[in-house]
Sequence to fold (494 residues):
Amino acid sequence: MEVRVRYAPSPTGLQHIGGVRTALFNYFFARANGGKFILRVEDTDQERYSDESLQDLYDTLSWLGIAWDEGPVVGGPCGPYVQSERFDLYKKYAEQLVADGKAYYCYCTPERLDALRAEQQAAKSEQQGYDRHCINLTEEQRKEYESQGLKPVIRLKVPMEGKTTFHDVLMGDITRRNRDVSPDPVLLKSDGFPTYHLANVIDDHMMGITHIMRAQEWIPSGPLHVILYEAFGWEPPLYCHLPMVMGKDGQKLSKRHGSTSVRDFRTKGYLPEALMNYVSMVGWSYDGQREFFTKEELEQVFTLEKINKAPGVFDYKKLDWFNGQYIRQKSDEDLTALLLPYMQEAGFVTLPLTETQQRKMAELVPVVKERLKVLSDVVDLSRFLFEEPTYEDLSLFVAKGASPDIALTALTEAYEVLKTGFSQGLDHEQIEAQISELAVKLGTKVNGVFMPLRVAITGSAVSLPLFDSIHLLGQEKTFARIETALALLRSEVR
Fold:
C-alpha cells in the first residue's frame, strides 16, 4: 500500500508554528515511506478566507523547501485540490446518504434552532443539540416547507445506540458513546456549502489518504468521522493525533508568547533550515540526543513511533541558538547576501554596493557572524558604523554597581591607555590587559571600565567586541566619539 498523507489547512490566517509542524511531520513521513505528500486547500469558510492567507501558505512551504506531490498549482490525479471547486462532489455524496437512509433533509429555521438551544439551556437538559425534528418528514411535509421558500440542509443520522471506536497511533483505541456524539450534525448547508466534516471525509477517501496526522484538538471529531466513513461504507484511514505545541509556561502556544506566524520569523531573520530543523524536534526525537538534521536526513529517519505523546514545548531561546548555529555554518559570501536586505532597509548601504561598502561589509561580516542570533541583529550591531551615537541615555555609561563619577574616571583613564597603547604599537591583548588593570585601581568590576568605553564608541551597551569595533570604525572616529562622550559625562557629573 502506498502511503498517502495530506496537509489540509484553511486559508483564513497566516501559517503558524503548530500548522507548519503538522505539515513537516506529514511531509517527512511520506518521504520516509516512499509515499505522497498532498496539499489540499479547505476554503469552505468563505467569510474568513483571504487570498493573502492562501499565498502565505504557498510561500511558507516553498521557503521551507517542502514540495507537495499533488495539490494546487502542481495538479494530480485526484484534483481539484481546492474544496470550493468540489461542491458538486459533496452534494452528490450527501444526497447519496439521504437515499441510503443515513441522512435526511432538515427545514428548521435559525429562529427555531435558537429557541431550541435556549430551551435546552434553561432546562439544563442532558441532551444538547438538534432534536431530530425533521428526521421522519413525509414527502408532503417537505413540499409544504419548500412552498414556503425554505431550503433544507442535510443532516447525518447519528446512531443513538452503541459506541464508536477508532485507533490512534499515539493514543491507542479511543471510544465514545454514540449518544455523546454531536446529534445529527449538518453535512450540507442550505446554500450548497459542505461542512468541514463532510468535505474532510469525502476528500480524504477520494484522494486515497492512508494516514491522517492532525492536531489533538481534532480527537473529539474522530468518532463522528468514523460514523461518516461507516455510513458511506468506506474504510477509515489510520489516525495519528499530534500533541499540542506549548509555550514554556505550559499554555498552548499563542501570540502572547511572541510571534507564531512563520512570516514573522522569516522577516526577523530566521533561516528556513534552522526553523525546519527546530520545529521538527518539538515533540519528536530520533534518539533523545541528536538535535541537528538536514531536510534530507529527516526524509530518511522520520517515524511516527518517535513522536512524543506529551505536548511539545516551543522554546524561543533554543530556536535562537539553533539559528545562530546555522548562521555560523554559512560562508561569509552567502551570509553577506542574506544580510544585505536588512542593511539596505536600514539605509546603511545601497545596492549595488559601492567599492567602499564592499570593503566595509567584507570586514564586518566575519566579526558579526559569531554574534548573530537572527539576521536582523546585524542592524543594531553595525549601526555605530553608519550613524553617529546620540548618547541620549547617559545612564548607559554606568555599569551595574558603579556610579557616574566612576564611569567618567574610567572612561578618561581608559582613553589615555588606548591612545598610548596605539601610539606605542601595543597589540590588542596588551592594551586590554592594561584597561582591565584600571578596574582594580578604581575599585570597580571590569565591566565598570569597559562599559563606558563600549557605549562611547558604539552608543550601545550591547556591541561587537571592543577592538573589533575600533578596527571597523577607525582610530580617528573612535577617539572623536570618546571625546564627545567625555564632554557629556563631565557636564552631567558637575
